[in-house]
């Protein structure tokens, strides 16, 4: 593995972790954000279509791409709703942990990914680490009863719903062997359709939607870097490195967006994201 390939493999985490930061920075609320983001992803998809990467000769790729893209839009829209309630730094570690747990459980139960005792043991260790990491990142501030906070409770429920969309996006591709640049155009179309449906009954503005195009473009480019890096550094390594997005988004929420945390919470966040990343590395190497 060349050093340049390793650096490129880090870019998906940087790009994906920046998506929600830009969403929040430009504002507009979750419905403008999801509509703009999905249309931005469609711009990247259209670029692939124009350059000949999208093929229309495989109906499975088309159908799975459209459905999985719509599921991603559903997951992202609900994640943005959670962010509007409790912020990026509270949402992203929990959301990432839930996604890893959800996709792993589905793959193990329905796809039989863990076939050896070693995989089962290390997989269970990773799951325990994930739960621990999420709990640490969610520590309440001193003298704060976060569990009694109605917005926090509502956000956790929304994130569970969000996870269903994200897990569906990932596992559909795994089940049917659909992925890469062949599927990205059709996924982006599904995202745009999903984003429109989710926001159609809510007030949106052209300006706010346009400002939120950038996060979608960045998301799509992050995918392209992922597709490039997988054959260079391996699927397990590229997956593990991509999960560093939780560091980018969580710390970006604190230091760029100015979300306030006390010393106890910062200690929990640092410890939690390190543990989540370790768990992601273990899970990546079990694939």
UniProtKB/TrEMBL annotation:
Matching entries from InterPro entries are given as: EmrE-like, Sugar_transport
Kinase as a keyword of this entry, yes or no, is no
Matching Pfam families: Sugar_transport (PF06800)
Top-level division of the source organism's lineage:
Bacteria
User: Which SUPFAM superfamilies does this chain map to?
Assistant: Multidrug resistance efflux transporter EmrE
| Predominant place of localization | membrane
Sequence intervals crossing the membrane: 6-26, 38-56, 62-80, 117-136, 157-177, 183-199, 211-229, 235-257, 269-286
- List GO molecular-function terms, semicolon-separated: carbohydrate transmembrane transporter activity
Instruction: Name the protein family.
Output: Belongs to the GRP transporter (TC 2.A.7.5) family.
The protein in question is named Glucose uptake protein GlcU
Q: Which organism is it from?
A: Staphylococcus aureus
